[in-house]
């Protein structure tokens, strides 16, 4: 795995003008190679700097989301498995806001495509899905590219503090209202 990542790193570094294209393609194929988003964004910061690395990562993460959208249309069984995971994680009662989805994408322990599935289910068409996927890809691309080394080098206590901070942000940006259907509210209680 390390050797494959090292070869990819050298190939992109020596590609000249094609390096950004190969980097975006690495984002798309990273899921097949089981490489975490964090590592690819770190690589982007190292190779291209914060600004260009972030831009290329945003485009790469959006491309991954579009590939996922296509796969979900072709393979409904994949959608069923991720829907079961989503139900287990969100318990089916939460409506996530855009800032919450951005924060979820920052959390390395939340499956990348869980947010993509939620976006598919909450958007009307591929154009709207692409727009929201682009927006939701901005925080992880910028944070992991700019501060990736710092996050990666944090001791365990720093990592725990960062995870707690992200969890608090997630709760802060939740929707403040709850919709209860008429028949649920007035249903007879079973004693």
From TrEMBL:
Keyword Transmembrane helix: yes
Domain VTT: 35-149
Transmembrane parts of this sequence: 21-48, 54-75, 96-120, 154-173
Keyword Membrane: yes
Coiled coil (UniProt feature): none
Protein keywords: Membrane, Transmembrane, Transmembrane helix
InterPro entries: VTT_dom
Pfam families for this protein: VTT_dom (PF09335)
The protein's name in its UniProt record: TVP38/TMEM64 family protein
């Amino acid at each position: 795995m390390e050797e494959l990542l090292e070869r990819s790193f050298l190939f992109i570094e020596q590609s000249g003008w094609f390096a950004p294209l190969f980097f975006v393609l690495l984002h798309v194929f990273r899921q097949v190679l089981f490489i975490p988003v964090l590592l690819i964004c770190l690589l982007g910061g190292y190779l291209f700097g914060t600004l260009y690395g972030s831009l290329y990562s945003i485009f790469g993460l959006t491309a991954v989301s579009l590939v996922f959208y296509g796969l979900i249309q072709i393979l409904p069984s994949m959608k069923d498995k991720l829907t079961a995971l989503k139900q287990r994680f969100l318990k089916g009662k939460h409506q996530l806001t855009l800032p919450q989805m951005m924060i979820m994408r920052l959390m390395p322990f939340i499956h990348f495509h869980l947010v993509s599935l939620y976006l598919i289910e909450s958007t009307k068409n591929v154009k709207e899905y692409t727009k929201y996927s682009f927006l939701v890809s901005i925080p992880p691309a910028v944070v992991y590219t700019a501060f990736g080394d710092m996050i990666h080098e944090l001791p365990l206590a720093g990592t725990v503090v960062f995870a707690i901070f992200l969890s608090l942000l997630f709760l802060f940006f939740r929707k403040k209202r709850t919709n209860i259907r008429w028949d649920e509210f007035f249903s007879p209680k079973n004693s």
